Amino acid sequence: MKKVINTENAPKAIGPYSQAIEANGMLFISGQVPVNPADGTIPEGITAQTEQVMKNIEAILNEAGYSFDNVIKSTCLLSDMANFAAMNEVYGKYYPTNPPARAAFAVKGLPLGALVEIETIAVK
Question: What's the CATH architecture for 2-123?
């Protein structure tokens, strides 16, 4: 059985999808873009945007009773691979030990003109 996870501490979905779905002890977090849920703004620069994305992921993890320690897979989408090192530096702060499996791709464009989007899978 699936459970829809929703929190006001992460951006509302901008389409027909849920922030996250929990099923069978696994949490599937939709791709998070760097929207500040408090005011709807997107910060400038890859470092600030990655930080906001990770805060959004953390809010959803917390709402569902998970933490970054439960994350097993991330997919990072970048508007430009030139931003990979800066994204990686911020991302790494959230996984200081035993980081999850991960893929990173450059894509032609991201929602709302974002520089980064990250989707996450966690398990209990």
Answer: 2-Layer Sandwich (3.30)
